[in-house]
UniProtKB/TrEMBL annotation:
Residues 4-126 form the VOC domain. This is VOC family protein. Transmembrane segments: none annotated. Gene3D superfamilies: 2,3-Dihydroxybiphenyl 1,2-Dioxygenase, domain 1. Signal peptide: none annotated. It holds the Pfam family Glyoxalase_4.
Amino acid sequence: MARALHHLDLWVDDVARAEGEWGWLLAACGWQREEGVRSWLHPDGTYVFMEHSPDQHGTHDRLRPGVNHLALTVEDRARLDRVRAESTEHGWHELYADRYPHAGGEAHLALYLESSEGFEVEVVVEP
């Protein structure tokens, strides 16, 4: 089956900080860093590319029109718990911690994180 998403360009303000945060999270979810570029590749061929563009203006606000959040998958609850345990030391802030791992509903296992620039990522256990 063909992949559903070809790639995502992620525009950030602070590339060095974002590279550390996103690089860690993507690796924790099974993505591989591509040599020589600021890009991470998923086993299905989808990739995420990160840059700071001179065309950017303003700051990211997921509550304005545009993409609200990105959802990544992990294979099991143990991996989800590990990502949660390590996320803070890699610059991520947990959202809805009081409802972990069911903030999305009782049948949905997920972790909700926010980067230092306000990007939200939902990490979901793929059944």
